[in-house]
Amino acid sequence: MTQFYNTLYVIQSNSSLHKDHETVVVKCDGSVTIQVPLHHIISIVCLGSAIWVSPELMRACNEAQIAVSFVSEYGKFQGRVEGIKSGNVLLRREQFRKADQELVCIDLSKRFIQGKIANSRTQLKRFARETNNEDIKQSFEKASLRLLNCLKHLNTSESVDAIRGYEGEASAVYYSVFGLAIKNPDFVFEGRERRPPKDPVNALLSFLYTILNHDCTNALGAVGLDPQVGFLHVDRPGRPSLACDLMEEFRSVFVDRLVLKLINLKQIKVKDFETDLSGSLRMKDDLRKLVLTEYQKSKHEEIIHPLLEQKVKYGLLPHMQARLLAKAIRGEFKTYPPYLLK
Asked: Which domains does the chain have, with CATH numbers?
């Protein structure tokens, strides 16, 4: 895993994608906007409406194992096209067997949510250190203690439903104080709203969580696991349940810190959003471009992986954790070790 692959995001409406020799050509209103070698990308994401992909390019992407995903302008996943699955069929058979074993599901679900709650708690402690307001600091510290209590109960959970309950409780606590970390008075966050997001902060979170899910889906597929068959999230047609499992530990690591950075540094403005007739909030094209650019930049930041003790880029973390998960499913590890922020 020495090479860091990128994702090609197409955000302009009325764009068309074509194959030209061994490259992807993106055109908008008849003019070429970008041309990228196929071997430089691992996936393509079409964001918005009226984006057309030629059959020739689709066929080439299938052969090269380049997934093509379609996401609405509101960040809702709509579909994904990919070629014949590669990887070890024996690994996938073992994954399917273990997904039907209650004790395995309980163990792996604990690990995913342990990572999520622990990383959320680390973020809250950082927020507390960074504020000079004593009341806000105490709110972060109290929420951090409640998350610690959730972790203690999580470790003694005897069912997946109980684990989901503690995950839900921890999320509610975390989001109840998340807005206190916003230092830009133009943005207000009063709680998590998913369907549909009614304020800019929720719109940003939903959009980037969808992109993170896409990255986790790619990572799992790359190591030979089936992203559709999870251990914590219930199987549902069209939903990559295992990718939903894996991304839990990365929500605060990849998305939440980036959303706060964009807002607090005033890189985005409220006027960069617009509301449709249904009341749903969406980002304008220029903002989507900025958010995706910053997201890609953040993936190039380097950290030391706490378990592997290697210097890696943030963007490789889902791939590294997918490999560790594959080892746990094969029985090479006693259990799955989630990524934990330091």
From this structure: 6-81 (3.100.10.20), 89-330 (1.20.120.920)
